[in-house]
Structures
1.
Amino acid sequence: MSAPTTAAHAACPALFIAAPSSGQGKTTVTAALARLLRKRGKVVRVFKTGPDYLDPQILAQASGQPVEQLDLWMAGEAYCRQRLFEAAQQADLILVEGAMGLFDGEPSSADLAALFDLPLVVVMDVKGMAQTAAALVAGLAGFRDDIRIAGLIANACASARHRELIEGALPAEIPLLAAVARDPALALPERHLGLVQAAEIRDELEARFEAGAAALDAEGLAEALLSLPPVSFAAVPGTAAAIPAALQGQTIGVAQDAAFSFIYQANLDLLAEMGATLRFFSPLSDTQLPCCDALWLPGGYPELHAARLAANAPLRDDIQAFFASGKPILAECGGLLYCLETLTDGDEQTHAMLGLLPGHGAMRGRRGCQGMQTAELPEGAVRAHAHHRSLATDTPAPIAHGRRQRHPAPGEAIYRQGGLTATYLHLFFPDNPAAVARLFAPAGTPCNATHTRSLEDTHG
């Protein structure tokens, strides 16, 4: 249970789930841990390191709680510290899932764990190795003196003998917390940009969460987690001040369904804190826009649903009329593809899109682009990231480019056509609320429609 909270500090048991590389099963194990404790009636708050949309969807379903990103470059130390403080006020356990390998990236998962003094559990796929797994964990533990590894979870363990070999070789100070059997029923389904969206396979995920929780329960992990000493998190002075209501009275239409779901919860929360009313709609299913003053077309998988998007002529006409009115539209990545004239999907079928921006989009196999960048918008710089396996061609000259985190070459193009701002970049709104408010704030009279759909009323 969480330790007592004061005005400036909150304490709660916490673990950072890390790995030597991607593909080791971090999300599978984190989701199973969250479900295990949830089944015991505990409140588990899960965070995901880095710019990730798909893992948080899965972790939110497993834990029954909202999942936010923690990233020292994209969000900043103060933001991360405050989110952990707020979570510790109401959680029985905090789990933070890392990204890539423990020491990969600048800043890395290790940097985040060290900054907040979070004990690390290493998840490792041990297929094809035994004592070497122990050597790798020992190497991770000794690489830096500002992190502490609390144990190993051996994933894809073949047998009891396999487990014995690993456990016997581990340093005394690094226990084997669990050995998870090699079982396809536990693994999470994947596609070209990562894991499959939770909303598409909700029932299947439930079965996998339950199986994972049962496997970890058999190892006695619930009791071990609940007996962890609490970690203290400090409040950040000044964060309790209200965010200026720069979007008060404005209504923002937000596309959200199976084709458009790459949405940070933090972005939605910020827009609401600035006074905006959010109205969600489905470009796949709805035939008209909700009454709104601005539109947000986020990223997602329009290439998987291009035929349905092209067939929804009534909504296309509605969005084209909205664009012609000059009102603001922000289109990110998949939203950018939707705004082009055509989109060629992975089967090389070409479909008509909105045509708000000259150009053509096409998938390009496994080649892609990813990385952290700052969107140099006229309204102000906003930190962001790119992750896509498509290409936009025959587009107009951009008004700006993203600034890469660690490379001098120009980043992703930023286009502006009338009120439309379109880019492959996914913006993290809390980095610069004032710039985001200017981006969405339209001229003219706010929309006065009366009905508002909640998050639970979305499609997809």
Note: The mean pLDDT is 90.
2.
Amino acid sequence: MTTPVRRAAVFAAICTLSLAVPLFGSVVGATLAAVVLLGAFAVTDGPIFDLLAYPGDYEDNRLYGLITFVLAGVALGLIAATSSMSIAVFVGTVFLIGYGNLAEQVARTRTDHEVVIVIVFCLGATAAAAIGHAGTLAVEGAPLESAAPTIVFLAASGALLAALLRDVLLLYDDPIVMLSVGLLLWLLAELEPAIGPLEIVAALAVTVALGYVSYALDTASIAGMLTGILLGLVTIVLGGYGWFAVLIAFFALGGLSTKFKYDRKEEMGVAEDNDGARGSGNVLGNAAVALVAVLGYAASSASLLSDHIAPVVFLFAFAGSVSTAMSDTFSSEIGSVFETPRLITTLEPVEPGTDGGVTWQGELAGLAGAAIVAGISYVLFPEVGAVGAAIIVAAGFIGMTVDSLLGATLEGTVLGNQGVNFLATLSGAIVCALLVLSFAVIG
């Protein structure tokens, strides 16, 4: 075995020690962690140091990688011991990181194809998380059959988030990844899946297939693909396929609009980088608010929020944010090929691609994008109705206008493009929710 594989195997073995908590109690688990930490501080050279050290550890002859890794596990264990986080989520998270990394390192000895390596990591991490979670429940005497849907959902979600974070962070940032994954799975475990076990497996298959297609068509980078799959999976499981249809319509049509007259956009200097492939920042900038709305809907449905906030409010917030994203994407991608944009704040002519520049063709395209989201929502959700569809169109158009105003005033100085996208979709969500509440009060 190569040194990275051996190191990963040792780290995975250390992760297995987390089972001591459900088997023997938190005191034994803490004692084992203390022993490993003391050993990590004591070993400063020799073959064991060489086996466990990351390249940066040689500068001070200290196993910082192992030390921070164990400390992250200890922090997660303390959270589980003192909060509503279950021990099963804790063990599943630790297994996910350790054995997912081992699977990745083994894969790297066979191929240098990054997509294959990501797939192997996700498969290994998902299997490990499911085994760790289920094993802990078995030790605790909890029924596994009824917990199976949640176990699969949490394992897959955690693996996708871990793969995404490892893609955008450094390989040695597994402590950060472990804590991030653990906190997400803690949140997701508190919510109730809207679908059954077979449907969750089908949802995973559908989102993975569509994510890979987006990567194969160069409409998403690897990070963008992972982000899209994670968002899609969470949306299906916690909202349902109707919510997913709205979201995937944006990703599909938005991606295609990016390719609209791409050569022409390159000539004008307004084309998206990476041949139009969307990265994680772009995906999250446009869909983070939608994800929060899905989580809010699930929390409201599970009675985790105030009874005064009806789930339907989050449905409209979701639709308003996606309507804004679609409207803004259509407006910028279609409107940018026309050479007579005007700054939205002064109506003065500006160069194509100028932040805050708009064209009448782009405004119409944006209105059409909002109408598409409204139409899909009208068909799929009985709660929407004709008035609700009109509200979604209005929210999308308002959100698109906010995007242009922010682009003309704050983008490039205070905000970046993804920050503008986030605030615009947030404004669309808030406007949509407030309008629905207003009409509900009037009605």
Note: The longest strand covers residues 342-343.
3.
Amino acid sequence: MKNDESLTAPSGKLAGNSVGIAHIVFFVVAAAAPLTAVVGATPPAFAFGNGAGVPGAFVLAGLLYLIFSVGFTAMSRHISGAGAFYTYIANGIGKPAGVAGAFIALLTYSSVQVAVYGLIGVFTNGAMAALGLDLPWWVWSFAFLAITHLAGQRNITFSGAILGVCMLAEIVILLLLDIGIVLHGGGPEGMSASAFMPSTVFTPGLGVSLVFVVGSFIGFEATAIFGEEAHRPEITIPRATYISVLLIAVFYAFSTWAIVQFYGPSKIQETANASLNTFYFDAATAVLGPWAAHTMNVLLITSLFACILSFHNTLNRYFFALGREGLAFEVLGKVHEIHGSPYVAGILQSGIAAVVLAVFVIAGQDPLAVVFSYMSALAVLGILAVQAMVSIAIIMFFRKDNKGYGPWRTTIAPILALIGLAGAIVLVISNLGLLAGTSNIVVDSFPVIVVLIGLIGAGFALSIKKASPERYAALGRVFAD
């Protein structure tokens, strides 16, 4: 049995100086899964939300996260480590809150990863069945789980290279569609900027649209979670954060604006409601030809794989940080001798995903209606809760010492971000049934589940404080300034 001192010391350090801005941006944007988000998430936003105002909703969400980034990047210069949001919250609000945030973050990323495993199984099943290989969806899900695990065991730059290729491919096909629409002069109603006008954006359906739009930014904290492995993190992390948010917001706003032009602002809501599953594929076929729709189908699978791989690496580093600090099995804090990756954490994370997937399969649950819809709804709610906690942590952190920053970065921007995130949480809770595809006791309990997980995390931290004060004192400070 090891003494408390050994539990407080780091049992490993990730390979430093190994990733740059491009790799981190790839992780963030790949987690956002551009093709999946645009083709899968925006049709419901068009159909049930503010219709032609969806592009403006992306602009609003982008502004919210840019404002969030002001304080987030300021704090990133003083707080670093593989725990990311956990470390921020622990150093800002306190250790119990930090562990609560870590538990909610684990719930969030585990949920979204399982959701995407269900979705990729369905899409791959459809694609392969057309080629004569008709296997159950879960066979493909477990196959991608194995591939993801092997990739995650390698050095982080290996995953970064894969994500870069996948991300560029899906962005190219969407840009071809967008540019094609523009070159054709739009659709029956021509082209206009009405999608960004306040009268179009701020309609009663805006709240519903934001529920889907905000979910497109999940994976945001990947900029900070790789700070320990980044080259010159004090410069790399802030730049990667702003680039990622701007890239996601601008690209999504442009792509949704283009599709509004194709169908026409007055017809977009009606058309989306009638063709949720073929909304973009129909446009791609009409503008570029049948090959584009087939290509989109294939790239949807690679987009989902990139999303899974990104979240797999994020989860690995959370488990790694918790193991290194004694919040979980210390062996999770070990790094691979060759690749410098948190390989033991990766084994645990893949095992958990496999067990959860197996439970859904044994229970005979539908991969779309339950696995994907339920888990993604829970993930959106969880990540907003953690981001709101980070905003509070930023304010409290700089109250102790403003580190030479002005009130805009240390107080005003974080408060504005907190208000925006709190509003988003209210919107998500109000529209959980729409986001999950149904309303029942399970879906309605998601807010309670998130709170309970947070309370369990805080209670666990307090139990450590009582049993091992030395270990408790080290929480969240392994790489703190």
Note: Residues 192 and 261 are 7 Å apart (CA to CA).
4.
Amino acid sequence: METRTSMPVSVPEVVSTLPGPWQQRQLAEVNDAVVRVARFHGEFPWHYHDEDELFLCWDGTFRIELEGREPVSMNAGDVFVVPRGMRHRPVADEPAHALMVERPETKQFGN
């Protein structure tokens, strides 16, 4: 997928192509970051990143479990930033989709 383009990218169209839980696609590059969309369903493994990670709940609901803190509940339209170095995992009881803003080199399963 072309990520630097003058044409709009349809998030619903990209979401419809995600084959299963925890699959993601890159939507765009902006400055030194990438915007990705992912399908959440079930429990993702605990992990951390060396940089902050922004989550925008696109549809459905999910929670972000944080080591040593109360989980953060996410509903469509909610934004939350997981601070760098914090162990976390998204958990979705039903399918949900989220946009994430990360560095291009960020690994899905963390560092």
Note: The domain at 18-102 is CATH 2.60.120.10 (Jelly Rolls).
